[in-house]
Amino acid sequence: MTLDAIDIVVPFYGRVDYLAATVDSVLAQDDPRWRLTVVEDGRHDGLGTPAWQRRLEDPRVRWVTNPERLGLTRNFQRALDLVDHEWCVFPGCDDVLLPHYVRTIREVVTHGTTIDMVLPAVQVIDESGRRSAPLADRVKRLLRARQPAAELHGEGLAASLMHGNWLYFPALSWRSSRIKEIGFRQDLPTTLDLALAVEVVRRGGVLALTDVEAFQYRRHGLSESSLAASTRTRFVEERLLFSELEAAFSAMGWPRAARAARWHVTSRLHRGVAHVARRRTGGRLRVGPS
């Protein structure tokens, strides 16, 4: 199959210096077949400088500013609504695409079977851009390493994600038509990524994995999901989502996935570790996303 440009859509609310690194990493792609859209949610200072204007001179770069602040979930949906091409990705406004990201995704899609999601290998970096290996990411790496094939689908994939969400949502490329018909859930701001991925799997979607490291995921304490975890919001949402999925999987005749959703072992362990650490830090702990 042939593949046109990949839509790289960045919902933006946060630090301009981090966003600059994200945009520059897109401009540095060694495959030119991409289109970048930044969806600014709320006005930010520091975007009128000559350096920023030079970034916007590339005709493949589009800047959209929401007329009013939408918040995380509505801005993700706004970003999805702006997708025009067959494939898309939603990197965080603090993440970095390695120069071969677009080329890597295109190669997987071109040479694979019918695929709906592509996940490259991911490097984790800290707030300063240094390689990092927090506990959450060591667990993700172990869970991913247990996957039996380069293309995954069905109950096996669903059960695996219920045991522990080893996906890196900002690095995932998606078949646009698959997710446009689903959309981002508006009631799950910190678990909308898992909810979307599992819904694609429930509808027969296929996830392709490649061991090529093509993305840098920035884990730091000021992210939306980190703040949500520190206030227990994430764990409340996870319990709601897992309960819904247990019922959905049971109705589909997927008992292994239903059982995994019922126990959601990694989420429970994450919640326990966060609880202990919060008590030691007086409630100031910030824990990254699952």
UniProtKB/TrEMBL annotation:
<dbReference type="InterPro" id="IPR050834">
    <property type="entry name" value="Glycosyltransf_2"/>
</dbReference>
<dbReference type="GO" id="GO:0016757">
    <property type="term" value="F:glycosyltransferase activity"/>
</dbReference>
<comment type="similarity">
    <text>Belongs to the glycosyltransferase 2 family.</text>
</comment>
<feature type="domain" description="Glycosyltransferase 2-like">
    <location>
        <begin position="8"/>
        <end position="133"/>
    </location>
</feature>
<protein>
    <submittedName>
        <fullName>Glycosyltransferase family 2 protein</fullName>
        <ecNumber>2.4.-.-</ecNumber>
    </submittedName>
</protein>
<dbReference type="Pfam" id="PF00535">
    <property type="entry name" value="Glycos_transf_2"/>
</dbReference>
<dbReference type="InterPro" id="IPR001173">
    <property type="entry name" value="Glyco_trans_2-like"/>
</dbReference>
<keyword id="KW-0328">Glycosyltransferase</keyword>
<dbReference type="InterPro" id="IPR029044">
    <property type="entry name" value="Nucleotide-diphossugar_trans"/>
</dbReference>
<keyword id="KW-0808">Transferase</keyword>
